[in-house]
Amino acid sequence: MCPAMERAPTGIQGLDELIEGGFPRNASVLVTGTPGTAKTTLALQFLVNGILKHNENGLYFGPGVYLNEVAAQFGRYGYDLKKLQDEGRLIMLAPKVKVEEGEDYVKTLFDENLKKKIVDSNVKRIVIDSITLILMFAGEFGGRRRNVERIIEYLKDLGVTSILIQEKHVGGKEEIEYGMEEFVVDGIMYMQLIRIGNIFRRAITILKMKGTKHSMDIHPVMLEEGGIKVYSRDRIYQ
Ligand SMILES: Nc1ncnc2c1ncn2[C@@H]1O[C@H](COP(=O)(O)OP(=O)(O)O)[C@@H](O)[C@H]1O
Ligand SMILES: [Mg+2]
Fold first, then answer.
1. What is the pTM of this model?
2. pLDDT of residue 174 exceeding 70
């Protein structure tokens, strides 16, 4: 038997047991779904758990995002993101999205300054919220696939484990549509709102995880005191 891959546990209740203990270390995992499916919440939980449970510093990178609102929303689950930032264990950045004509936004964002900040702050986990927005303003050379590769190469060089958030417009029972991101990333987690009778329920499915034997079931997701939870033993049937 080959030795098992080194893991970065998400620390999210129910999730790690679906993926052999966590994301493969140094992997880039796409978290995809329509608005309100709790992508940002899951990603922040991954960062905060990294800091509090595994002593790994984190970076939340959200171009155009209102950081105060993000911190306030996540704060309601009982976490003080301000304190973690003051302690130098969490960095939250929201670069502006005023892209000039012809500018290559990938190059602008992922520069040497950011690299230095990541290395100096000993960041081991990164969340990019969202890759969809960044790709809208990326350079044309090599197309969308090459641009995703550039971002992933940058992250892998830094030796971090990352979540890339993708914003989908179509959810529900439709076939999943694939762009280019999906082919390049190491893992894909699909978050959905599924209608069951009169209500919508939150759900997650692991569609891909490099070097990992994983569940393909649709598992319920709940937002509770303490944060996001995956109900790994339950399944949603449509
Ligand atoms: N304190 C809370 N308790 C339970 N659910 C919440 C709380 N705050 C926000 N939510 C739910 O979380 C959703 C937003 O989650 P978010 O992670 O921002 O989604 P996404 O990033 O996929 O758009 C809201 O639409 C709301 O339904
Ligand atoms: Mg979000």
1. 0.96
2. no
